[in-house]
Amino acid sequence: MNLCAPSPATLTSTAWRWFALLTLVVWLAGCASLPSEVDRPVSTALANPEKTRLGNAVQQRAAKAGTRNDSGFALVNSAELAFTSRMALINAAEKTLDIQYYAIHADETTDRMFDALRAAAARGVRIRILLDDFNTAGKNAQVLKIAFERNIELRLFNPLPGGRGSLFFRLLGSLNDVDRMQRRMHNKIFVADNAIAITGGRNLGETYFGQGENTNFIDADVLAAGRIARELSRSFDLYWNNPLAYPVQSLMTREDIEKLKAPPAPKTAAPLDNPALPGTDGAGTASAAAPAPAKPAGVRTTTAPDGTVSVIEPLPDSTNLALLDWTWAPAVLLVDKPSKIAADADDVKEAQDTTVDGLLQLMSQASSDLLIVSPYFVPGRRMMDQFTAIRQKGVRIRVLTNSLASNDAPAAHVGYARYRKELLALGIEIYEMRAEQQGSLTSFGSTGSSGSTSGSRASLHSKMVVLDRSLLVIGSMNLDLRSQLQNTEVALAIRSAKLANDTIALIEPAMARGAYKVELENGLLVWRAPQGSVLKDARTEPDASAGLKLMLKLIGPFAPEEML
Questions:
Q1: 337, 340, 413, 463: which is the annotated catalytic residue?
Q2: Which of 250, 509, 527, 559 shows its CA 20 to 30 Å from the CA of 131?
Q3: pTM across the whole model
């Protein structure tokens, strides 16, 4: 008898214990509910932003530009600028900071940002943080402690009832209300003194600012000043004062959050029988090799599977926003109403007039060129019909999206793969981002700061559309059914040939050097290797593991598109 193998009775007993535990968890979570009586004081954006230094600087810059346009813009085209521009707004704010995000990750990068927020609050700045509740479990629950600081409020939008020990059990406990769990606030807005704002695709966390050790998101934002910043603030107020926004204090205490902290890792002691001292070998005698020089504070290194070492240098504290290349142009805010997430959203007619619907209407007006950047690209039949109509006008359409290997949500690739051949048959040009980048994309998103990006895995996260080289749309939306039907989104449509062409100048090198071009050859897909690379063309999903390819085949025919 194999004494190491459990008996059938033991296996049965263990299985029943796990089943009983899961049943209990689901039952307890099903009993959990959100508070019905919530103290939710109404507040609004700063009424007179022109009386602040930032507001006054915006007015002076507009006057100097001699323009009739009341909104100014500057592209945030690197991971470093994405971080330092936000830090600059925190440091410059005198009255208010309004921050709205889908996710804020607890890590060193956000620690620095939160330290700056605490300093701003200490000097009297009112800070409102509105955060979707989906990603506030486990380690990330620690970001909620800032709600208990003076002058700082944090509200959770569309919270899930139950504990926050892990995302898995939170999802398990919400299976009785899947429809509401699926609808998330995906907006990303950062506004200082109701005068200057940042919006785009980024959440807050090290992987969005080029500091991730394994994966970094390729992303893009835009700084917006003047009238359009005030419109972003008004949309923030609609969400902030909505009944779906719960103050953290109505859901948990600071002690509850502290209890979720992971215990510190135990320190490993040197062997007691023959300890090796610094500068000596294992026998205690002086070693010939000199000790390695200490790395500068904050510098980290990572090693890729192929042995390539990458250096991640710390990000600067802030940047001088006045030195950026500002463009004054007409613009329109596209933003979903909070009612899109409400329990009866399907019955609310206004909830169907979405940000993605507005984007599709703009796209239908293209007359010559349409460039789309969407990490999760699941068109659906309605969008496919629109692409057909646009192509019939002779409009060139190019799409940059993730490959299966670079997609951080491979299930979304399943929905996209269904339409790939049909898209190509329409004459639409498709480019799929490579997962492994060699520093070629440092000017386009979060592939690194000033250090090397060799060995860093890249995942496309930017959401942009450029029409006829004259209109730029940038925001939080993806061209998929989730953004159209489930999540709330925000975007800016900016009429500026300069910004449009500057954006194209960022994207085209990424398509040429960092992406596979997908083509049809005798009815079969072929992936053309990026220009100047040593890679070869591929006949199947390049760089993807066998497991990912198998998943594509198994769930491809069954997965509902609106949930991908």
A1: 463
A2: 559
A3: 0.86
Q: What's the half-sphere exposure (Cβ side, CA atoms, 13 Å) at 478?
A: 28
Confidence label for 283 from pLDDT (cuts 50, 70 and 90): very low
Please check whether residue 199 is in contact with residue 476, taking contact to mean a CB–CB distance below 8 angstroms. Answer: yes
> Which domains are present in the chain?
49-259 (3.30.870.10), 337-563 (3.30.870.10)
Options 337, 413, 461, 517, the catalytic residue: 461
Would residue 468 show up in a list of annotated catalytic residues for this protein? Answer: yes
Catalytic: which of 98, 132, 193, 543?
Answer: 193
Pick from 141-155, 282-296, 386-400, 464-478: least confident: 282-296
Q: Where are the beta strands (DSSP E) in 164-290?
A: 189-192, 196-200, 215-218, 221-226, 245-247
Report pLDDT digits (tens) over 451-463: 333 456 899 999 9
Asked if residue 474 has pLDDT above 90, the reply is yes
Concerning whether 461 is annotated as a catalytic residue, the answer is: yes
Active site residue 115: no
393 belongs to the catalytic site = no
100-115 residue pLDDT tens: 999 999 999 999 999 9
Q: Which of 76-80, 102-106, 268-272, 456-460 has the lowest mean pLDDT?
A: 268-272
Count the Cβ atoms, other than its own, within 10 Å of residue 475. 29
Is 295 marked active-site? Answer: no
**What SS3 state is found at 449?**
coil
The verdict on whether 256 is a catalytic residue reads no
Distance CA 536, CA 443 (A): 25
Whole-number Å distance between alpha carbons of 107 and 110: 6
One of 95, 132, 133, 186 is an active-site residue; which one?
Answer: 186
Residue count of the chain: 564
